[in-house]
């Protein structure tokens, strides 16, 4: 993936993740929607930077076609990514929401469980749609070439 595509992937992932997370937190907590929105925007910003760095490093250790990754590797990827993200986001959530680290941990675990499932589905779909588009473009290029 190019740097531009990595940025596109991260931004698309986070926009959808933030929107769905805010909605879930509004439904399941009694915190102010504006505070939750601000919190999730900060968390998403941290996650975007972590996503870019983590994907770059992960791709170095596990090269090859992303659409050919096994489900086992995808689950490993998501769990490792989310564990690293928790390290950075729990203190931030505790501070912004003015809750204890334990309360922030449980809030973040709820978001993390949702995001883990979402990330697995999002990346599977993204990788396969990307492969389809690339294959289609290659086919269109070959069709346009006269032999």
TrEMBL record:
Residue ranges constituting the Chlorhexidine efflux transporter domain according to the UniProt record: 2-63, 69-131
Transmembrane segments annotated in the record for this chain: 7-29, 35-54, 75-98, 104-126
Span of the signal peptide: none
Transmembrane helix is among the record's keywords: yes
Keywords linked to the UniProt accession: Membrane, Transmembrane, Transmembrane helix
A Pfam match: BTP
Name listed for the protein in its UniProt record: Chlorhexidine efflux transporter domain-containing protein
Taxonomic lineage of the native organism: Bacteria, Pseudomonadati, Pseudomonadota, Gammaproteobacteria, Vibrionales
